[in-house]
Amino acid sequence: MCKVLRITFESFRAWRKENDVAANDHHIGTRHEAEASAIEHLWPHSNDLEWDEYTERGLRVFASGQGSTLTDVQGRSYLDGLAGLFLVNVGHGRTEIAAAMAEQAGRLAYTASSNSTNPATVALAETIASITPGDLDRVFFCSGGSEAVETALKIAKQAQVLRGYPKRYKVICRRGSYHGQTFGAMSLTSSAKERYFGPFMAGVSKVPSPNHYRNDFGLEGEAGDLMCARYAEQEILAQGPEHVAAVIGEPISAANGTHLPSPAYWQELRRICDRHGVLLIMDEVITGFGRTGAMFAAEHYGVVPDIMTMAKGISSGYAPVGAVAVRREVFEPFTKHGNAINHLLTFGGHAVAAAAASKNIEIIQREHLVERSAQMGRYLLKLADGLRQHPTVGDVRGGKGLLCAIDLVRNKETKESWGTEHPFIKGLALRTQERGLITRVWDVLHLAPPLVITEPEVEHAIEIVDSCLTEMERKFADAIS
Ligand SMILES: Cc1ncc(COP(=O)(O)O)c(C=O)c1O
């Protein structure tokens, strides 16, 4: 059996003492009124929580948050190892953002998105144009990531028609990617359930995506990545370039297990798209706004996409905001009379949401959270790397900002995953939560905390993962080979 990871967590112990965090105090015992009521009336969003698990265990109902800590209605505190859902970049409890929102709501909460706007939304568009790479300087607002992806698809398809290619409607995406749950976005999402929602949007094909741990071609490093890019080109040729509107991918795909592509992959994909007149969409919904140690992950690769989607960290979750930034050349045909974009979302460019996003970006810049993400990401990876001594940790990936994945296997030689339904995985998810760490445990265990996380908190998170892994490995020793 593996040894428990032995890092001398002096600072963590001091922090735990100071914050009075007991080692094992997060069981849901007697239910709080809100927890009981949630079971009666709330239908939680889910792509992994079964109804019986929900009613048996209940949902954590969080009442407040500060920094990287969440407190539930029973007064128990948790370390938010997932920043909500990869998005509370500036941390919880920022009253400065609340004040900006209140001020805007008191003055003017809403203006119609189709034929008017407001100063808060204009200011946010200007900020986004200034911080996105290259000439991505035209911004369309919406309310979240899925809407951003739908918008990007519509922009790409209409742009191709306006450029004189009326048959370019197909979209190439990557296996393992996640782009959202509305119909078009879901059609590009590998985990979408065909049996409930198929047939999906016509003209979508999925190609392999960079993976240095289980490469589809049995190739290592950059060579494997380049093969993925060339496979995309083959797919464009197979579909006929005259039919392909766009290629879409997350610069670093959290959904696909946080594999870090080589710059050569994105640069090659950029060249391929240019060669065939295909638009490149980078989905920065998770990776934007400092998550990967750059304002946008595209910067790591020296590539400017034609269209960039963003949401999540744009407001750190203080308001539902999404946006699509478009390059000048792509936008240009929309300016001709008769070519206006055929797209309208009532809440796109909401004044209060824009005020929240602007204040959030101001904080990211003022507190140098992008740099902090890069620095703390390196620390997180260093500690997480120590978990490799566990028999069930096949790989540890990250180091580009605060996006880290611990790949869980039952056999290190064959790299066989447990499968998300296995009691080892379910048990690990439950135990980490009971120990006070919010994370996500599927085939990989994700850590993506707020960018304000401190070193002791990073140590705390790794200590919990370490001891919960040991506990599960003892319990399922017979299943590990
Ligand atoms: C890369 C990516 N795109 C799109 C989405 C969809 O965003 P939303 O859940 O805000 O609709 C997500 C959500 O996690 C995402 O990770």
List the helices and strands and how they pair.
Elements: H1 10-19, H2 33-41, H3 51-57, E1 62-66, E2 69-72, E3 77-80, H4 83-86, H5 95-107, H6 119-131, E4 136-142, H7 145-162, E5 170-174, H8 183-187, H9 194-197, E6 204-207, H10 221-239, E7 244-249, H11 263-276, E8 279-283, H12 298-301, E9 307-310, E10 322-327, H13 328-331, H14 351-366, H15 369-385, E11 393-399, E12 401-411, E13 416-417, H16 423-434, E14 437-438, E15 440-441, E16 444-447, H17 455-475
Parallel strand pairs: 3-14, 5-6, 5-7, 7-8, 8-9
Antiparallel strand pairs: 1-2, 2-3, 4-10, 9-10, 11-12, 12-13, 12-16, 15-16
Helix pairs in contact: 1-17, 5-14, 6-14, 10-11, 15-17, 16-17
The structure holds pyridoxal-5'-phosphate.
Judged by helices, strands and strand pairing, the structural class is alpha/beta
Characterize the biggest β-sheet.
7 strands, mixed
How big is the Rg? 22 Å
CATH homologous superfamily assignment of the largest domain: Type I PLP-dependent aspartate aminotransferase-like (Major domain)
Percent of residues in helices comes to 25-40%
Q: Tell me the number of structural domains.
A: 2
Mean pLDDT: 94
Regions with pLDDT < 50 over 5+ consecutive residues? Answer: 1-9, 19-24
Total beta-strand segments: 16
- Beginning-to-end CA distance, first to last residue: 11 Å
What percent of residues are in strands? 15-25%
Strand order of the largest sheet: 4-10-9-8-7-5-6
CA-based shape: globular
- Number of helical elements: 17
